[in-house]
């Protein structure tokens, strides 16, 4: 069963250019992963510094493998210094 994820990030406005660069690398590398069906970066239109990752994974196992990838671990380490708050992550399965 496909796993849907929405991850919400809030970056300090002083780091927006750096954040976008980090996200670009993360998205590029993640889209190459087996089981990644969608991985899109969205910027909130009303809240500067707020980004969403819209993810679709073939399975929970594929997502679990993603969590151990170097490009994700590097992103988490580098982004944590620039964020205003902790990442919010919502995971679920399509009902209809």
Automatic annotation (TrEMBL):
Keywords: Monooxygenase, Oxidoreductase. The keyword Oxidoreductase applies. Signal peptide: none annotated. Residues 3-91 form the ABM domain. InterPro entries: ABM_dom, AI-2_Isomerase_LsrG, Dimeric_a/b-barrel. GO terms for molecular function: monooxygenase activity. It holds the Pfam family ABM. This is Antibiotic biosynthesis monooxygenase. It comes from Chryseobacterium pennipullorum.
